[in-house]
Amino acid sequence: MDNAVGVRLRFRRSLVYTWAGPGLVVGRETSMVRWNSLASADGRRLMALAAALVVVLVVGTLGYVIIEGWSVFEAFYMVVITLSTVGFREVREISDAGRVFTILLILGGVSILAYAVATLIEFIVSGQLSGMYRRRAVRREIAALSGHFIICGYGRVGESVAREFAANGASFVVIDNDPAAAEHLDQAGYLHLLGDAADDEVLEEAGIQKARGLVAAVDSDADNTFVILSARVLRPDMLIVGRANSEESLRKVRKAGADHVISPYSIGGKKMATLMLKPLVHDYLEVVSGGGEIEFRLEEFALNDTCEIVGKSIAELEIRKRTGATILAVRHGDSGLFDTNPSPEITLDDGDVVIAIGTPADIANLEELFACRIPAVRDHSR
Prior knowledge:
The chain is of the alpha/beta class and about 375 residues long. The chain contains 14 helices and 13 strands. Strands 6-5-4-7-8-9 form a six-stranded parallel beta sheet, with helices on both faces. A four-stranded antiparallel beta sheet has the order 10-13-11-12. Residues about 1-40 and about 380 have low confidence and may be disordered.
């Protein structure tokens, strides 16, 4: 196996794929059991108890119908008053065989009913029932999202990404399979799902079909490859940013389908070196990227034919004077090339992407100047 990196991928058809560097090799089938993420262990216990009660009611009703020859309604009524222990008299005179059956019904049915009531009280007192409703409410919120981001993994990198998204007002969903991470996410107030981010069903539940992009920030390079391959199969057109811990994994993660691959350790090392060699350059980059004491924002606008500024030049618009924002670059829609020092005479056309810097107020003024009836949403698909 190339560089000895093995990846086992689970897809909806329960086939096992092995990632061997150059390509995908289809392996043996596996009979993996998937629990629906909506059903917790506690919820399944309640469902099992409810099913047991239904069985007792059905068996008890049939028993009286067969043994005593009663009607279905009379038999069902007898079962209900027996299990509820209200003490009403029998519907009719009962035979010895019927009395033996009633004893068995009391011993079995009443015990199950008492256990079910005790379990329900435990659920209510411990807050598990409210937790189930809360999780359902969260899933309804997730189902209503559109144009959001999905963060897979809530370790140090995933948490940092979530903070940046929250600070910029971006909607997102976090997927992690660690219950401890779920508690932190609850405390932070972030929408999240507890499950395997490489599972197609979990990704679908996170709204991958309507998502704007996905960040694979799981600690393991192999797990990130699982996630990226699964996401790429479900959404071939979506922007995917992956994490790679080692330089040798960068190529594999990119080959799995990531549009961009980030190595946190490599970036951290470069940043530390820049701090030592070019401290003022670093400070400037911190300011323009929004990380300094002065609040600046870098923003990108994808122009469309509903924008009133299409067909006009930067000089004609007087962008700096009227908004306070500065145009740093323009990516031309026809060629895809970046103009990193655009001339004031350059004309802004439909399909162009404008990258600007300014305070939040400047950026808001610029968005108002563009006056697009269809919002100039940042476009990552081109």
